[in-house]
């Protein structure tokens, strides 16, 4: 399954959806988050980002 998950710094999931070319993160509050990208070929990545 190709999906993205966004977690706050407390480890709570704030968004999970199927992976697409664009995802709308505008509903997230300002702060630091971790974006986890999971692909069906297990080429998973985690990226920290700041939402302004």
Q: Report how far apart the termini are.
A: 29 Å
Rg from alpha-carbon coordinates: 11 Å
The tally of beta strands, per DSSP, is 4
Taking pLDDT < 50 over at least 5 consecutive residues as the criterion, the unreliable ranges are none
Portion of residues in helices? under 10%
Our count of helices gives 0
Helix-strand category = mainly beta
Tell me, rounded to a whole number, the average pLDDT: 92
Strand content: over 45%
Order of helices and strands: EEEE
Shape: globular
Largest sheet: 4 strands, antiparallel
Oligomer: single chain
Strand arrangement across the biggest beta sheet: 2-1-3-4
Question: Can you put this structure into words, describing what you see?
Answer:
With 52 residues, the chain is mainly β. It is 0% helix and 52% strand. It is built from no helices and 4 strands. Strand 1 (3-8) and strand 2 form a beta hairpin. The protein is globular and about 30 Å long.
Main traits of this protein?
about 50 residues, 4-stranded antiparallel beta sheet
Give the helix/strand layout.
Blueprint: E1 3-8, E2 13-18, E3 31-38, E4 45-51
Antiparallel strand pairs: 1-2, 1-3, 3-4
Question: Would you kindly provide a brief summary of this structure?
Answer:
The chain is mainly beta.
């Amino acid at each position: 399954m190709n999906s993205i998950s966004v977690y706050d710094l407390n480890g709570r999931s704030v968004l999970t959806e199927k992976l697409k070319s664009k995802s709308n993160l505008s509903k997230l509050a300002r702060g630091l988050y971790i974006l986890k990208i999971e692909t069906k070929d297990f080429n998973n990545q985690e990226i920290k980002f700041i939402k302004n």
